[in-house]
Design a protein that fits this description.
Layout (H helix, E strand, L loop, with lengths): L1 E10 L6 H8 L2 H5 L5 E7 L6 E10 L2 H18 L3 E9 L1
Antiparallel strand pairs: 1-3, 1-4, 2-3
């Protein structure tokens, strides 16, 4: 088994409340949590209106498959979330 962890840090320009933040970042669990090989959670910046941090953990039988899933997640997030990705950190365990 191979495990990959990816943490994405977002900025949400113009976001004025936690409710708006949840609406703009909403759906992450629904989009990615259905895949049994992926776990997702909001892992940081919980109380800031204008920032958010999300972590994704991927488990697969090969390193190549882990890297592929992490790339797919990153691409989908960048095209569907109403926020700017400021930082991407990946770690293979």
């Amino acid at each position: 088994m191979h495990i990959g962890v990816m943490t994405l840090t977002f900025t949400l320009p113009g976001c004025g409340s936690l409710k708006e933040k949840r609406q703009r970042m909403g759906g992450m669990h629904e989009r990615f949590g259905r895949n049994p090989a992926i776990a997702v959670c909001e892992s940081g910046e919980l109380n800031r209106h204008d920032a958010s941090e999300w972590s994704f953990v991927v488990v697969a039988t090969s390193k190549r498959e882990v890297e592929s899933l992490l790339s797919q997640i990153e691409d989908k997030v960048q095209s569907t979330v109403d926020a700017r990705v400021m930082d991407v950190r990946r770690e293979l365990l």
